[in-house]
Amino acid sequence: MHRFFVPPAAIEGDLVRISGPAVHQISHVLRLRSGQRVVVLDDSGREYTVKLVRRGQKEIGGRIVAQAQAMGEPRTRITLYQAVLKGERFEWVLQKGSELGIAAFVPLLCARNVVRDPAAVAKKLPRWQTIIREAAEQSHRGRLPRLQTPLDFAAACRQAQAMGGLSLLAWEEETALDLKQVLHARSPAAPGLAGDDSPAIANIQLFIGPEGGLTAQEAALATAQDIQPITLGPRILRAETAGLVAAAALFYELGDLSRASQVAGHDR
After folding, report:
1. Of 5, 155, 196, 230, which sits most exposed with the smallest number of CB within 10 A?
2. What is the CATH number of the domain that holds 122?
């Protein structure tokens, strides 16, 4: 069944009001009729099977016929601090990162960014949020990944340190320490899972630099804020590739690419 995120206020008892772009999608693209069913999510970690009962030009009404915990969220929460990229590359990262299971995105402004104007970046946030929502619906996510306002590198480092957990900086000048070594050091007895049903590391901040790479000064600043530089191997990855590769490797090492690991979503 097709899936749509709606605001929590759109659900009242067993009635659901679907509005916005989803109306066009349901009526004119999918051509669904009254009596057919869709899945509605309110970003609470639950999903609702809804029978369509009324179609209008601006709103579609439905009635909830079943509900359950949404099971599309990894247990490990990864926040991707991704340097803003030119063209459609940043949008591609948002789309594929949402499919993969990344919990939050922070647009990052670094010294070597091609795109460096905070105001110009802020104007793109509504479009980026739409890309994230559509990717989350398509990939059966239980919650919408959060998109934060842009931060400069120093402010992002301070934020990551305050969040706790494990903070990592993918940097091409780091040649010794890799992802697996960091994870084994954090959980030497069980590099995958710690305990019966909890990830060894529940909260990870992952920093990825721009097309021109991070400066030595930025790497030093990150290290001073307890953000660990790591290597992603002997090959130099593009800026739009590195974060997805690192996130996928983290999910794999922590057991989050197994269907048994999926949960309703993180508390917020």
Report:
1. 196
2. 3.40.1280.10
Q: pLDDT tens digits for 61-87?
A: 999 999 999 888 999 999 999 999 988
* 230 and 136 within one domain: yes
Per the domain annotation, does 268 fall within a domain? no
pLDDT, tens only, 143-193: 999 999 999 999 999 999 999 899 999 999 998 899 999 988 876 544 444
Burial class (CB in 10 A: 0-12, 13-18, 19+), 40: buried
Q: Which of 27, 49, 69 is a domain's end point?
A: 69
Rounded to the nearest integer, the mean pLDDT of the chain is 90
- Report d(CA 73, CA 103) in Å as an integer: 8
CA–CA gap between residue 109 and residue 119 (Å, rounded): 12
Q: How far apart are CA 42 and CA 260, in angstroms?
A: 23
Length reported for the chain:
268
Q: Is 233 a member of any domain?
A: yes
Give the range of the structural domain holding residue 106, as residue numbers without chain letter: 77-261
Give the C-alpha separation, 135 to 93, whole Å.
11
